[in-house]
């Protein structure tokens, strides 16, 4: 069967139409440094909110003059005692920059040592905290999480803090906090007492049509299954969802049967240059790359889709890319913290069946595909034409 011929809107030249593509994707010039509090007495005390040990104070003081902390214009501190003591040991009670107290990044709950103190008790030890931003907003009662409320801290608090952090106007930010929370925030980096590191930029990368050649896979399977049926050349498709194309070539029943056929996702060919590009980004040391993909369908269909995508990732990138820090499969990508999301979908923060989700922390970089070239949802967004 010859390819279906449809009336296409007249398209401008690639150079004119992709004028915005000349703006290379840029991550906002904000540097965030994470500081793990010094050693504390949690092992010996067994009480809530333990203080630093003598060694912990020495670890904190040793960070004075650390080049990573130079030029700080925003100091963000967890209200737990060990974090406040660490911040004061480094910067003093009046840091010389905006100091912010917030429970957004307090430690994930793992026992009584991660429970804090009410504000009156904190003031007895740190009366200067009333002069710090965020003190008035700290709840008067129990501001710290509990075992039940913090069960999904990675899905709730970490994205919220990342989004809040990137929204701050300051360019040089130091965050004093805790190992468990920082591990989730940084994508697996395990800091020790008194250690500091720069928070890597997070680039989220979609799979279908970005890492994997979804179009080639679909066309091949469609033509194998329906050799007499019409089909659309890739350049003529005008919608992200194949069965929503105005040509009407791909009906929902048959197209979904193709997409949900066994092995569809795990055998997709990689996009040219994609595997090498991910390796190069990882090699910089300053970029954390995370695959962020959505499963097709619901319930069992979605579970099978995710399982096949995991097989693809392990086969093409290695098993190390299947950790929670490197692979996320969710319907709502707005909840995933990041700086950039490379995605071919014109508006990845929405789904055609649902209302728009919350605004994401990431900036959308459109991975160019024929169907998104003229889509108004892509206007003004940076583009990546190819790897």
UniProtKB/TrEMBL annotation:
InterPro entries xrefs: 5'(3')-deoxyribonucleotidase (IPR010708), HAD-like_sf (IPR036412), HAD_sf (IPR023214), His_Pase_superF_clade-1 (IPR013078), His_PPase_superfam (IPR029033)
GO molecular function terms attached to this record: 5'-nucleotidase activity
Cited CDD domains: HP_PGM_like
Highest taxon of source: Eukaryota
GO biological process: pyrimidine deoxyribonucleotide catabolic process
Active site: 206 (nucleophile), 208 (proton donor)
SMART domains: PGAM
PANTHER family per UniProt: 5'(3')-DEOXYRIBONUCLEOTIDASE
Name of this protein: Uncharacterized protein
Species of the source: Pyrodinium bahamense
């Amino acid at each position: 069967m010859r390819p279906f011929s449809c009336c296409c809107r007249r398209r401008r030249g690639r150079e004119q139409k992709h004028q915005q593509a000349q703006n290379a994707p840029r991550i906002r010039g904000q540097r965030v440094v994470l500081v793990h509090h010094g050693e504390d007495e949690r092992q010996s005390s067994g009480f809530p909110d333990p203080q630093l040990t003598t060694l912990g104070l020495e670890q904190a003081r040793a960070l004075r003059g650390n080049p990573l902390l130079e030029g700080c214009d925003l100091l963000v501190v967890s209200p737990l005692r060990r974090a406040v003591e660490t911040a004061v040991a480094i910067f003093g009670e009046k840091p010389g920059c905006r100091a912010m107290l917030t429970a957004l990044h307090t430690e994930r709950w793992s026992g009584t040592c991660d429970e804090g103190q009410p504000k009156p008790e904190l003031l007895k030890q740190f009366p200067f905290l009333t002069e710090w931003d965020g003190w008035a907003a700290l709840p008067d009662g129990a501001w710290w999480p509990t075992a039940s409320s913090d069960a999904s801290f990675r899905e709730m608090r970490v994205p919220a803090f990342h989004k809040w952090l990137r929204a701050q106007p300051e360019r040089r930010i130091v965050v004093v906090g805790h190992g468990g929370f920082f591990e989730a925030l940084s994508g697996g980096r395990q800091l020790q007492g008194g250690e500091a590191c720069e928070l890597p930029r997070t680039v989220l990368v979609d799979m279908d049509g970005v890492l994997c050649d979804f179009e080639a896979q679909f066309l091949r399977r469609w033509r194998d299954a329906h050799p007499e049926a019409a089909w659309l050349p890739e350049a003529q498709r005008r919608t992200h969802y194949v069965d929503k194309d105005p040509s009407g070539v791909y009906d929902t029943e048959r197209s979904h049967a193709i997409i949900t056929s066994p092995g569809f996702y795990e055998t997709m060919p990689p996009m040219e240059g994609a595997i090498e590009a991910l390796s190069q980004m990882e090699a910089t040391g300053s970029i954390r790359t995370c695959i962020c993909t959505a499963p097709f369908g619901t319930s069992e269909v979605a579970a099978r889709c995710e399982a096949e995508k995991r097989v693809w990732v392990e086969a093409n990138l290695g098993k190390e890319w299947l950790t929670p820090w490197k692979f996320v499969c969710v319907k709502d990508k707005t909840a995933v913290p990041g700086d950039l999301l490379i995605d071919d979908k014109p508006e990845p923060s929405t789904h055609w069946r649902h209302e728009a989700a919350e605004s994401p922390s990431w900036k959308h970089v459109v991975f160019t595909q024929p169907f998104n070239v003229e889509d108004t949802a892509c206007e003004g967004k940076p583009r990546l034409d190819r790897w």
